[in-house]
Amino acid sequence: MVDRRADRSDLLQGTLDTLILQTLRWGPAHGYRISQAIGAASNDVFRVETGSLYPALHRLEKRGFVRAEWKTSENNQRAKYYRLTPAGRRHLTQEQSRWDQLVAAMHALMRAGEQEG
Hints:
Blueprint: H1 4-25, E1 29-30, H2 31-41, H3 50-62, E2 66-72, E3 78-84, H4 86-111
Antiparallel strand pairs: 1-3, 2-3
């Protein structure tokens, strides 16, 4: 029996930063909104838990890929909003290129030999 949660977390662990940066490309957001956007955009294949999200956001902030500021959320609560920086946008572009190459290579590998048999 395959544990889908384990599959998700293995993939997510290596891609969380890229998923966050992509979400912030759509505009500034607080942590909960980022988590919800990732889930919605991936048809709930990726579910980001708080224990993974906030350390990743802090790491991205430290690297200069995102900036944070406190604002009032849509439900009148104080929340830290994150936005993509120019350095984060450049990094995301590089990561997207790597993902495109990876997906193409995986597709080629998975289809190799199909026409031989």
